[in-house]
UniProtKB/TrEMBL annotation:
Protein name, per record: DUF1206 domain-containing protein
InterPro entries: DUF1206
Species classification: Bacteria, Bacillati, Actinomycetota, Actinomycetes, Pseudonocardiales
Membrane-spanning ranges: 32-53, 73-102, 114-133, 159-180, 201-228, 248-271
Disulfide bond keyword on record: no
Length: 278
């Protein structure tokens, strides 16, 4: 008899990607499209911040709320959450068994990245589930401050929160590396894509990864400030990070560029869904 791990390995090796079976592969691609749509909506909300228009917070909570208020939005969210969970499962499988076309440190880095993608899409799926069930949630900034307050209340809490800030900043650096070195292209099958489309996917990926790295780095800086000052109110989520970027010396111009990059990442996710092999 073959064990479950052997059967899973055969499913992965026999399919078009690292997903455990064609159903998870198909649903995961739908989830990846939804993940991209959320980023496009976050970019739109960030533009509202840049132009001083009061609106929903520029974070996944605000984006999901925007979808929920549209006709058919709840049905779209219900379908989307299934896809998000499928993509999370796909990435767990990729982390355990995937990326067979690279070796050594690059395979380890990609597998760690797959774990991060699984966590991110699972988190977004939980946001959607709460909306579908009518659960009242804290906003992203409030949740970040609550977590910071909890950490600071523990023995050695400032060190713990500082360590979390370092992890976030390391992830931002890794995301920058991915964008600059274009290593995301190795996860895609672009053999049937023309040169213009390939160039478009490449530049959407570069702009998207670098913009997300900047936003994630800002979240890490907020966490570090909260740890240094022992003040949880100085922490924040994506909305607070984007507002910090908007209040920097370049001001709204930089925030508009970041918003454009986040939108580019959303479009990249949609191309990714069509061509992903990992």
């Amino acid at each position: 008899m073959t064990g479950p791990l052997v059967r899973l390995r055969r499913l992965v090796r026999g399919g078009p990607s690292d997903a455990p079976g064609v159903v998870v592969d198909a649903l995961g691609r739908v989830g990846l499209v939804g993940y991209g749509l959320v980023h496009v909506l976050v970019a739109w909300l960030a533009l509202q911040v840049a132009f001083g228009v009061p609106d929903a917070p520029a974070d996944p909570d605000g984006a999901v709320g925007t979808v929920a208020r549209t006709p058919g939005g709840f049905a779209a969210l219900a379908f989307g959450v299934v896809g998000l969970v499928a993509f999370a499962v796909w990435q767990v499988t990729a982390a355990a068994l995937g990326f067979r076309w690279v070796e050594g440190g690059e395979r380890v880095r990609k597998r760690v990245g797959a774990v991060a993608k699984s966590i991110a899409t699972t988190g977004l799926a939980l946001v959607v589930v709460d909306y579908l069930l009518g659960v009242r949630r804290e906003g992203g900034d409030t949740a970040a401050r609550t977590l910071a307050a909890t950490a600071l209340g523990l023995p050695g809490g400032r060190l713990l929160l500082g360590a979390a800030a370092v992890v976030i900043l390391v992830l931002a650096v890794a995301m920058t590396y991915t964008g600059v070195r274009r290593t995301f292209l190795g996860d895609l099958d672009l053999s049937r894509v023309g040169p213009l489309a390939r160039a478009a996917v490449e530049w959407l990926g570069v702009a998207g990864h670098l913009s997300r790295a900047l936003a994630l780095g800002a979240i890490g800086v907020l966490a570090a400030r909260a740890a240094f000052s022992a003040d949880p109110q100085r922490a924040g989520g994506l909305d607070a990070a984007l507002r910090v970027i908007g209040s920097s010396a370049p001001g709204a111009s930089l925030l508009i560029l970041v918003a454009a990059g986040i939108a580019a990442f959303g479009l990249f996710c949609m191309a990714d869904a069509a061509t992903r092999r990992a």
